[in-house]
Amino acid sequence: xxxxxxxxxxAAAVLALSSLSASAQNPIxxxxxxxxxxxxxxxxxxxxxxxxAEKYTNGKVKVEVYPNSxxxxxxxxxxxxxxxxxxxxxxxxxxxxxLGVKEFEALDLPWLFKDEATYAKAMKGPVxxxxxxxxEAKGITGLAYWDNGFHMVSANRALVNPADFQGLKIxxxxxxxxxxxFRDVGSIPQIMAFSEVYQALQTGVVDGCENTASNYLTQKFxxxxxxxxxxYHAHLQYAVIVNxxxxxxxxxxxxxxxxxxxxxxxxxxxxxxxxxxxxALEEIKKSGKTTLHYLxxxxxxxxxxxxxxxxxxxxxxxGGEVLDxxxxxxxxxxx
Length: 335
Ligand code: LMR
Prior knowledge:
The protein is of the alpha/beta class. Helices cover 49% and strands 17% of the residues. The strands form two sheets. A six-stranded mixed β-sheet has the order 7-6-8-5-9-11.
């Protein structure tokens, strides 16, 4: 009997050891795919998450970050997440319609957030949670919102008055709200994967685009656009999302460690976003390859007036509920 206990004990020890070493040698892999450069707020955030996740799980989780559309482009990465070929993404919320969740596009309304602080506060309120709930039915779990500041807009002509947009083909990332506000000023929006934008601008497939300074710099858009307007007309934010089946299937202790890593990576990303974009804009300015334009208060009002129809139209696209939540959070009126 005693012998049996010893044998059982030894077997248990071997098992415990082998499962420990198995998790160290065969870590859980999280493939984190995204479309921007490493040297951007999102790129740095993804690498910070990797560092912390691997540290807090003692190497039981390995995070493989694939930047710059090196694994998948915009649309493919969302399909890959649903199929389980990747486990984590951080798409811009303008790209969620193919998932069947159009409500996120409300965040793309022009001139919605007065400044960065207003944006940050709003997303910590009920609307952020409410939007994440919408993902659940799609088998996707939202973990965090990552900031990337405000959009500028560019072309090979100065865009200072609404009439300057007339007839221009403008690349947009996916949101019908952006499609709508560019139509309001007479341009022709076109959805295109982020990885294709540089070449499309260079060859004239499109005339212009909108994006944040960090993306203009790292993708070199500023080299193929003569004029950039620092309009800050709309906000760019990301939702870090995971495949729910994968996430819920993780051992609870590991999930807890990853939650902690994500919370810290989120604070880090959101704390650097604004400075990253200011620095990027400075570099673009210094390059001398493009001309920066700033709107006068009158010009800004003219853009706002020209794009106002998008607000009326938005209700039919994103629904009244999310607009009401935003209006309440921001203390504004949405007609
Ligand atoms: C874009 O496609 O313009 C952006 O969503 C890219 C990004 O992820 O910042």
